[in-house]
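Design job #97: recover the sequence.
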């Protein structure tokens, strides 16, 4: 346990003689043994401080400040009803996240997110349990599918759908909308439309007597407890599911990794292997203890991260120069603006697992190591003042995740 009167130490391998190259100097490494400048004598919250060692005592290479790129579902209010709950992070809560809004939702066995649709596309990854999803494609063809942990779904904007938890544990998942302003409380539910339509119009539309609608809900259901669905094939038959509808699910965790080595793995889904996903691409990343997501950036979209497991620290390099390091744990969300350099390091004893989500039809990244390996060595040597013989030991291609044997 960290003493609440002492700044938390940085977690890893600072080099004593390597301070920030900018003036004035920043970081405790520049205090030269005089600790008076690091005293913190005002009101403090040691519980929160303990979660952010890299901000309490930043690496000496950090410089200046930039917009917060950390948030967490752990600090978001839960909206609870019989049948489940949800909590969200929109741009209103997390200013930097203007491309993606996120929702963490749980549905009890039988718990249902009522029939609805959005003005934005919906991407989601299952994190626990099982869920039955229904939707209709642009040609009016139905889909009824069961998804479980590691699977993703994608509903294009405007297409109707429902979600229902299955036994024995229900379903927990994280949704990403392709607009940072989209709220889970700002959808188009069937119950609202019925309640705000004259009953004679409903009767005329469906060809039934007006009395049929005398007991319809006068308020939307949002999440409600329903009977747990039965056999999947029976539901498919009842919904008249036919061959040929566009696939709305992708078994991401069971797909072949594009990167796999001793340091971890990367799996991806975008419109190239999941054709319906025209506005959201994703990568599922695992990093072994001691491992690291290599230094890189993404040229085509901001990166929205959701941390599923483990602990990490990430430094984001921005223009200015600016460089900021912060820490992440399960349930946290990070955002890295397009083109900003970053790495993600596993700082714990457990496997680190997180998803990277992009508002784009394709997954793209630029590896720093790969770029340098495709330049004349003498050019790089003169830039970095590193012996060309040492440069020859650098990786010669994209690594994605740094192999442990190289660290």
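Job complete. Output follows.
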């Amino acid at each position: 346990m960290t003493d609440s009167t002492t700044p938390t130490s940085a977690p890893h391998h600072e080099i004593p003689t390597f301070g920030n190259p900018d003036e004035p100097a920043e970081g405790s490494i520049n205090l030269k043994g005089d600790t008076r400048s690091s005293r913190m004598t005002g009101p403090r919250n040691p519980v929160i401080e303990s979660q952010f060692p890299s901000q309490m005592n930043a690496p000496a290479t950090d410089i200046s400040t930039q917009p917060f790129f950390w948030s967490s579902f752990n600090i978001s209010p839960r909206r609870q009803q019989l049948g489940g709950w949800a909590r969200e992070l929109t741009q209103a809560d997390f200013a930097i996240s203007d491309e993606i809004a996120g929702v963490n939702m749980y549905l009890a066995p039988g718990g249902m997110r009522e029939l609805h649709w959005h003005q934005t596309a919906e991407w989601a990854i299952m994190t626990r349990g099982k869920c039955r999803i229904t939707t209709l494609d642009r040609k009016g063809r139905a889909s009824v599918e069961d998804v479980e942990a590691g699977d993703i779904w994608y509903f294009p904007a405007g297409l109707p759908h429902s979600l229902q938890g299955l036994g024995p544990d229900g379903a927990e998942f994280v949704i990403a909308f392709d607009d940072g302003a989209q709220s889970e409380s700002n959808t188009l539910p069937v119950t609202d439309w019925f309640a705000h339509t004259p009953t004679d119009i409903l009767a005329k539309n469906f060809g039934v007597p007006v009395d049929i609608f005398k007991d319809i809900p006068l308020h939307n259901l949002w999440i409600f407890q329903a009977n747990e669905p039965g056999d999947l094939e029976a539901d498919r038959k009842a919904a008249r599911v036919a061959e040929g509808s566009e696939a709305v699910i992708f078994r991401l965790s069971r797909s072949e990794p594009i990167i796999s080595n001793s340091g971890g793995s990367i799996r991806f889904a975008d419109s190239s292997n999941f054709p319906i996903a025209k506005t959201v691409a994703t990568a599922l990343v695992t990093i072994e203890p001691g491992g690291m997501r290599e230094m890189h950036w993404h040229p085509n979209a901001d990166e929205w991260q959701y941390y599923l497991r483990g602990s990490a620290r990430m430094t984001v390099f921005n223009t200015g120069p600016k460089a900021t390091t912060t820490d992440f744990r399960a349930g946290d969300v990070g955002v890295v603006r397009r083109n900003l350099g970053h790495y993600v390091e596993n700082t714990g004893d457990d496997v680190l697992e997180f998803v990277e989500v992009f508002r784009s039809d394709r997954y793209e990244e630029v590896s720093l190591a790969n770029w340098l390996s495709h330049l004349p060595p003498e050019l790089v040597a003169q830039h970095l003042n590193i012996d060309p013989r040492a440069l020859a030991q650098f990786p010669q291609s994209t690594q994605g995740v740094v192999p442990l044997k190289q660290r």
